[in-house]
Amino acid sequence: MNIHFAHPMYLWALLGLIIPLWMHFYSKKAAKVLYYSDLSWLEKIHQEGKGLKQVQKIWLLLARLLSLFFLILGFANPLGPLSLSQGTSSPVILYVDNSPTQVLGNRKAYLEKSEALPTSPNGQAHVFFNDVESQDFESKSWPQIKEQWNQQGPGLSIVKASQVLDNAQQIAEETNSKPLLYWFSDFPKNKALPEFSKKGQYVLQAMKGIDADNIYVDSLRLSHKFIRANTSYELIVRVKNGGTKAAKNRQFSLYLNDFKMASQSVNLKPDELTELRFPFSLNKSGVYKAKFMSDDPVAFDNSFYFLLQSSAPRKIFVVGNPQNLAKVFEQEEFFEFKPISASEILPSHLPDDAFICLVGVEDISASDWKALNSWVAQGHSIAIIPNQGPNTATIQDINRFLMGSGKQLAQTAQSELPVQQVSSRPSFFQEILAKRSGNQGAKLWTSKPLWEWNPGPEVLISWMNGKPYLEKISLGQGSVFLFASSILTPQDGFNKHGLFLPVWHEMVLSSASNPVLHQRITPNGVDIKASPDFVFESPEKSLLTWHKQGQRFIPEQNWKGKSWLCQIPLSMMQDLRSGASGFVEAKIGSKTMATLAFNYPKEFSQLASYSLDELKDHYQGQSQVSIQQELPQNFGESNPSMSWAMYCFGLALFFFLVEMALVLWNSYSSGTSTINR
User: How many CB atoms lie within 10 A of CB 94?
Assistant: First the structure.
């Protein structure tokens, strides 16, 4: 039986019961001799039996002690079950969806729900929030749960419904019972509703959602991957209304280093998307802290943070005889051209921003092809130019290299063929075509095919017979630019054509690594690369610290050899003043290793949620699931609790009356006893 006291400090008064005990036993002192001059004058008194008096005194003491005991107990206010017999019951389990939408966007409704929890410490429950890594399976009293609920910041981990149900099942198995789970959420429509097993009881507590418009950034990209200094480009931002009402004349503004650059007005229906374009130009050096800001009523995601920086020069490494290829790049400051040997193409020797060009494939070993496959699949680019008709073994090595792309090369005995450009769909090629040729079927030049393959969706140039002359092939996260002829020989017409130079420029620049403009917050961690001159000494001396708005955070981190893998600090995520979004400087001491721009996941900006009727329709026929808006009376107590204070006061009064009755009886019996004169 689980009994608690509302005012346990009063129990210290029970020590006062020692006083009547002491007085009772102290009065039993030894008899003294009294001297009288003449005993004949004393009356002869008939004396009662000594045993009866002792019994009366014991009952009087016991009544006095019990009246004091129950009086003190009443002031302590004992709380316990209505019934003294309490059978086994299911442990109460709470899952609280503390997403930013609730904690930051709808905090009033979120806290109101916690106020409905029991206020007394009678009863315990298990509670889980979205931040699974910070939780434990220990039960807590209701005051502890309320305190944790009210102090909990936004949980950014996306918790799967199956994970919550597994936790509830594990707790129930430990107590040999069925799970009793209360699921507190606004039940957003962008997440699937949980599916419950027939074993146990599940109560969906629908928290109030936000009824407003909410403009947020769905995606952001640049008009070109390679950003040259002092050149005009466009930021293409895709915005969405994730709210429940239409957004009318909402202002969407671009800021660079806190300076407002441009603003546009937005009108969007709920769940509607549109694209906005903002022109920009950057200086040669420096990182720009940029952000988009909207003025909708849901404030926690009104700022979208990202970074802008002009691109570093592209490094072009050529294996084989570059011939006249060097002249294509040597006149431009944003190219760094360097011939290398076949032994230098190992991925460990290549910088991350390198563009590799293989002129001839005969000297590349099978192990080198395998290493290049891994390097390209990580997001890099390579161009392959055959020098002569390859043999069967070389074809097999290249086909293994292209494994995963769906391409298979084959030898060909074709003589020279005319070439035409057949596709203007690739974005990097459209501007070239607009300037060079308006006739898609015009003959461009003639070349001799050295191998062939079936065309794919990104054929840039093709022969008149439809086979690819130049195709961009996706391999993992990277790209392979594959030529079908030896384009650098004097006999090939491509190197004499006006498209030769601009195609090469666009091929190299468009394959630049896509600038990391921003990061969505995920539980997977953040990879922060060390500067080239950094030397890792020890975990203590190489501790990476994060600085955000004057605050310092130390993330959980692991050194990977060239970078740190960091987890977003929980204290930063739960900071209700600014949350986890914003700019972060990652530093070693006073040296900045990286500047990061964090934003909330898109799914947290979707406000539409299921109504009570929709929830009831979804779970119709599932007797183990009930949908409620208010918590029931005596929530969390399988045997409802009550105050026993009045019972204690009643017993105290009863034993006080017993004590009075014993005193009166004792006085009466003493006054009416038989006296012998």
Answer: 22
